[in-house]
Design brief:
This protein has 134 residues and is mainly α. It is 63% helix and 3% strand. Strands 1-2 form a two-stranded antiparallel sheet. It is globular.
Length: 134
């Protein structure tokens, strides 16, 4: 995934501002799949620059700073790529599914190891309990 990010940007900085890991990975996938600059998607979705800094606002309303409206991944694709709503939603859903699969395959190994250890401990505890019941 590091190669999909702009050079000189750490994964931690690139991921900052996203709601969760899945949203971040999906945005990286869209960037790769459609050739959209990751920085553009991140700015639309989080209001932050690619290195995690707030995007400067361009005006005030009634004395208060205006805030950037944060977009969903589908809306960001529409805004940056000029794609219709239906297609952008399909692309976003595909990227999200792809992200969930990538995350699951990465964390399954760790979870499986932990589950095996827990299962072994639980089995041992149950065996001792059965041995105490004559």
């Amino acid at each position: 995934m590091g190669t999909a990010l702009p050079s000189g940007v750490t994964v931690v900085d690139a991921a900052s501002g996203f709601k969760n890991l899945g949203q971040f990975v999906a945005a990286v996938n869209v960037s790769n799949n459609l050739g959209i600059p990751f920085a553009d998607l991140k700015a639309k979705m989080t209001g932050l620059t690619v290195d995690g800094q707030p995007i400067a606002t361009t005006g005030t309303t009634a004395g208060a700073e205006t805030s950037t409206k944060l977009l969903s991944l589908g809306q960001a694709i529409q805004a940056v790529k000029g794609m219709d709503s239906t297609t952008a939603t399909q692309v976003a859903n595909t990227a999200t599914t792809q992200a969930n699969q990538q995350i699951a395959s990465t964390t399954t190994t760790t979870t499986t190891s932990a589950s095996s250890t827990t299962a072994t401990t639980t089995t041992t505890a149950k065996s001792k309990a059965k041995a105490k019941k004559p």
